[in-house]
Amino acid sequence: MRKYNIISKYLLTGCAAMMLAASCTEITDDEQYEHYISFKAPLDTEGSSVGVTTVYVPFTRVDADGNPKFGGTGLSEYKLPVMVSGTTVTPGDIEVRIVPSDTLETLNRERFSDNRKELWYQDMSAYASYPETVTVRKGDSQALLNIRFDFNGIDLSDRYVLPLKVAESDNYLRHPRKNYATAMLRVLPYTDFSGVFEASNMKFYIVSGGVVDNEPGAMTTVQTYVVDQNTVFFYAGTFNERSLLRKSFKVYATFTPYEEGGMRGTVTLSCDNPEMNFVQNKTATYTIIEAPDEVQTYIMRRTLIINDVDYTFTDYRSAPGSTIDYNVVGTMTMERKLNTQMPEEDQIIF
After folding, report:
1. Burial of 185 from C-beta contacts in 10 A (0-12 / 13-18 / 19+)
2. Are residues 60 and 169 in the same domain?
């Protein structure tokens, strides 16, 4: 009798296991989440671009041999991921339509208000092109939207954003969260000479009657923006991109290498605004140093040092009816940590 009880026990356990397996199969066969279409474009949460997505793109996209990929300088591309959410594979190809977003003005009004239009983001669509549709293939969870850029002639003192959105369609479900189905791309082209420089060794002095004040003011960082492959610009003194007056105080820096390879050279500073009374007092030089990280040997530390920065300019706008002359001197340093195991353009944080 005991033998039959044991057999019955195992039969019951086996039946329960089969029922549980069938139940689990039924659950996993059904989609627990909708196949929503969205972008992979997380919003910045700190810095000067909160509320948009900062994307770093090489000013000139090059091929494996280092030649311009699209035939000239200033031509580049970025591949924006288009995602399909869900726990099951897509049953077939999904053709997703991409259109310009009309929410840029709303973003500007919410972030900066009408009385600070100098800080408003500008639409970058004139410098970008992309296909009207992108196809997510059966079984895939994402596709890449190939965005092409022509940065020639762009003035980055305007804060540009490329606004995109997933269009409504009967063939798929657009993600219900607006910041998922909309991408606000703050595109910043970069070269070897652009980026955020540490400037704690930079000082600015007030010049009065030709005499330099002995009590300098301190600086923290200086950000440079691309003009062309060998030229960047920055804002004089302590002006930065959050200043309403920034466009009046642009300083250009042109890098001229001593030899092939460009690891050392001179830096010529200039200005196209005569009201700034800009003067470069001595020739600046630059040096690029590359060295592997002592701990993470696959990381290359690339340091750009600009020595002998020395210029004067006039601030003619901060105090209406009066002017202030400044002398700025010191050294600027920028370091990038590059992962040698992946393409530089995929490393979006410098």
Report:
1. buried
2. yes
